[in-house]
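Pinned message: reference record for ABC transporter permease
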Amino acid sequence: MAVAEAITAGTPLRSNRRKVVRRILRNPLAITGLVVLVIAVIMAVFAPWLAPHEPTQTNLGQAFAPPGTPGHLLGTDDLGRDVLSRIMFGLRASLHVALLAVATSLVVGVPLGLLAGYFRAIDALISRMTDLVLAFPFLILAVGLAAIRGASLGNAAIAIGIAQIPGMIRIVRSETLRLKSLDFVAAAIVEGAGDVWVMGRHILPNAASVVIVQTTVALPAAILGEAVLSFLGLGIQPPAPSLGTMLADAQQFASRAPWAAVMPGVAIMLLTLAFNVVGDSLRDALDPKASRR
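Predicted structure (tokens):
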């Protein structure tokens, strides 16, 4: 295994790790995106302690309080619930669903993508099944699965995760086909390495960068998917706060209290934009062509 080990040790993922970090740190957009994500994660994780009010606490005497009202920095909704507190807990729910959904797509999609790219005999079967699922638009498939399973946070996460599996399979399959043709994989096979060893020791570690980038793309899609499902009543159910349910509740009062709809909409926009910026920056940093610049 000495030849294969030596070649693998020189792959971009391992040898250029510090260069990748430096490229990201030199990108102002990447730093901005990371700062936004860190703030969002802190707000979500520590929402029970950071939120100024309980997210379900109503106060009809302060309904439709505008932003800047003492005690309500971002105002209140039609039931007098604090918008900032509900956004914090809504971020918590959105990130929870997104992480569960992406984890589902990784657990199923990565092994199937490896098998499809490595074993030509079963590639046709997995690829045709993937094409069949991809025939349905992502959100349509997620809505349909959520409607079948019922409205809840867990079912929303599973529905979005299943809808993201085909994309993960295709990305991993494509990278597996590319890596399989490289010299270090051929060297491992010549030295007698088994298929499981080659996939787990040589192909999967070198495909990690592609999987990481795809994860940063899947996370904002899952956040938007959760918002759509909750908006349609197929995700997190009231009175539990969700950015999607906040938009659904506020739409009928948009002319009277626009902040109740604008604030959660801005939160969704900033969160998804931050993930996309970080994902693009990470993809550029991991691009082998960038190392020549």
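Pinned by admin. Summary line: The CA atoms of residues 136 and 172 lie 20 Å apart.
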